[in-house]
Amino acid sequence: MVNPPEVDRLAGSRAAVAARRARAEVKRAVSNGERSASEVLSSAARDGAQPESTLRVSELIGSIPWLGPTRTAKIMQELRISPSKRLGGLGVHQYQRLHEFLVRRQAPRRPNETETGGSRLVVLAGPTAVGKGTVAGYIREHYPEVLLSVSATTRAPRPGEIDGTTYFFLSDEQFDAMIEAGQFLEWATVHNAYRYGTPRAPIEAALAEGRSVLLEIDIQGARQVREAFPEAKLVFLLPPTWDELVRRLTGRGTEGPEEQARRLETAKVELAAQEEFDATVVNTDVPEAAREVVDLMTA
Ligand SMILES: Nc1nc2c(ncn2[C@@H]2O[C@H](COP(=O)(O)OP(=O)(O)O)[C@@H](O)[C@H]2O)c(=O)[nH]1
Ligand SMILES: Nc1ncnc2c1ncn2[C@@H]1O[C@H](COP(=O)(O)OP(=O)(O)O)[C@@H](O)[C@H]1O
């Protein structure tokens, strides 16, 4: 029996809705880190009937955490794949290029081989509230062999912060005097508000003793350290997702809504800088993230 056209049309639209839902589920799983993009590509290549095969390449790449539309468009150009191309329609060479890109991106980036062995100066940077201070504090507690640099700042202490341990809390005049005397290894104005700087003397002394030194500083500072110490390793701490970063900032309760909004704006700029770093560590679990950072100090 042949279905009347209306029944066929209905069945067709139901199938289209189901396929759309399946593609949305694939994108959600990739953006949450539940599935890797390379595994989705392999699944599409294995079986053209899978919903993955009708996913556009640009949708797959755009689902990878921290790759926004601008970076995605740039990557599509570099891979020489048209934005409308679906996974199931890739040519052999296109598939190869995309697969290599995805596998390269997923492997945890280790400092490049040309670095002098055992360089001991490591910078830990990342967006506000990602957990830099928490991970650095865990390292201070559990890896006493690592010297954690104590920065100077002109911002006021938060409840529980101890002068000389969390920061050296200085007045503007005291901070200016240290700049004048060349006593900072680097310094920067962060979140368009307060100044932060790394006192030079303790770092140079610790490096001279062959100790590992960890600087927890902002992106501007990381760039200055790279200039002064090309062998330094720059590690970028990432949150599992943007929503988790927002939750941590608001949950921390150390800034009011206006300051939080300002810091989140800075965070977007900072996240875009991660490509300048030698390695990235995702701070899902503090002990695990701390272990990965320490491993990078001796890698
Ligand atoms: N350049 C530079 N940045 C620093 C230094 N110490 C801390 N920071 C950065 O200043 C920013 C603000 O730090 P803080 O006020 O503790 O805020 P939080 O990052 O939101 O906890 C963070 O990105 C820190 O990494 C430093 O010595 N130099
Ligand atoms: N892995 C994690 N899981 C959940 N919460 C975390 C994690 N790491 C840090 N936090 C919390 O997130 C908030 C921001 O951490 P903090 O160390 O102050 O960030 P940063 O120094 O990067 O600004 C704090 O409330 C901290 O307890």
Automatic annotation (TrEMBL):
Localization annotation: Cytoplasm
Residue ranges, annotated region (Disordered): 29-49
Residue ranges of domain Guanylate kinase-like in the record: 119-298
Iron-sulfur listed as a keyword: no
Residues of the signal peptide: none
GO molecular function: ATP binding; GMP kinase activity
Name the record gives this protein: Guanylate kinase
Species this protein is from: Amnibacterium kyonggiense
